[in-house]
Amino acid sequence: MMFVYSKSPFYHLVLVSLLVVMPIASEGVEPLPGPKARNLLKEIQEETQQLLFQSPGVKKEFITSVSLMNHIQRIVSPLRYSVLAGAGEKMPTTVEQCLESRAGICGNQVACFLLLANQLELRARSVEFYLHGEQPRENTSHIGVEVYFSGGWKFFDVTWGTYFQNRDDICSIAEVRKNRVQARDWAVTNQTDQWYLHWRRAGLDPLIYVDHTNLDMLRGRLGSIRLFPVESVYRPIHQPGFVGLNTLDQDYGDVSVILNSIPTDKTNLKMTISGKAGGGHLLIIQGNDRLRVSIASLNPGTHSFELPFQLKAGEVRITLEEENPRQIGYVVYTAIKFE
After folding, report:
1. Orientation angle between helical segments 35-54 and 106-119, nearest 10 degrees
2. Distance, first Cα to last Cα, the chain
């Protein structure tokens, strides 16, 4: 989803789960482009050829990525999305619907980018940001993309029409995060976009993920999401609600969950599960201790696992056990609790 703040009801118009926009099983990418997408592809290909002729020293992948980003930012509009939401209209979910309605938030924009990038032979993946608020209910999130060329990943924020350039190099999100405040000076942003201008007038920071100190990041879905208890229950709030691997794409990995503020007087872990797919095992780990759970055994419902170790202060990780050969395996959950 886009960053959502509680300071004004206006911002709640764009409060839609990223995992609805980008479904767990499919990464939000449709198998084939529709008519609107095909027309846009043709336009981008024509522009790229023209620019390559005029700027032969510029990488084709860079020109294509920027052109694709600019078109999607212009066509798949968060401002239009908020207008539709405010009018109670049916909201677009697929790429073709977003292009048809000319509306969407960051998850929609990234779904469009990834589908079209695949057709344009760009190697691309999502980059997800999950920012922790003072309380879990104040969590926010955002999503961009990385494209691989010139020997490395290059980050593009489709929503703001932004990439980061340090001298002659386009930066990866890892380089941006490493350099924090300094990286803000590297941002090349479309500052005339109306949604960008609106955010700035409202006192919001479109590039907050650059140097936010309490953030979880998934690059190609690979990474860990930290959960904190609310009344002793851990729930994903504006965060991915699954653990494991949901695609075999070489540039994507598995999501782990880290539970913080662990109670040391409990002996069981209870997990409420709403779905599963694939095979393999989940590992519940603290330090050198672990419990191995077969994904096949985890039908929808609430499961209680007796822990074969004494809980200690700190954190507990729930992760997918690596399989060889690699296989899809994930569990969708709504709540976790120690008892």
Report:
1. 70
2. 32
What span, in angstroms and rounded, lies between the C-alpha atoms of 158 and 212?
19
Cross-strand pairs, 290:
285
Nearest to 114 by CA among 171, 33, 57: 33
Read off the tokens for 191: 């500052």
* Sign of the four-CA dihedral 262, 263, 269, 271: negative
Of the candidates 254, 252, 262, 253, the residue with the CA atom closest to the CA atom of residue 227: 262
Count the residues in the chain: 339
Q: Is the pLDDT of residue 13 over 70?
A: no
Measured CA to CA, the distance from residue 5 to residue 14 in angstroms comes to 10
User: In the structure encoding, which two tokens stand for residue 110, read together?
Assistant: 């990234």
Domain ranges of the chain: 9-216, 221-338
223 and 317 in contact (C-beta within 8 Å)? no
In the block, tokens 């995992």 appear at 19
Distance CA 99, CA 109 (A): 10
pLDDT band, residue 31 (cuts 50/70/90): low
pTM: 0.91
List of residues 6+ apart from 280 with CB closer than 8 A: 244, 295, 320, 321, 323, 327, 329
How confident is the model over 127-182, as pLDDT tens digits?
999 999 999 999 999 999 999 999 999 999 999 999 999 999 999 999 999 999 99
Residue in the block written with tokens 């239009």: 80
At 52, list the tokens.
Answer: 């390559």
Q: Among residues of the chain, what percentage have pLDDT more than 90? A: 89
The two three-digit tokens of residue 20, written as one number: 């609805």
Cβ-defined contacts of 177-184 (< 8 Å, 24+): 177/210, 177/211, 177/217, 180/210, 180/211, 181/210, 181/211, 183/210, 183/211, 184/210, 184/211
Q: How far is CA 55 from CA 67, 132, 174, in A?
A: 14, 43, 28
Assign domain 221-338 to its CATH architecture: Sandwich (2.60)
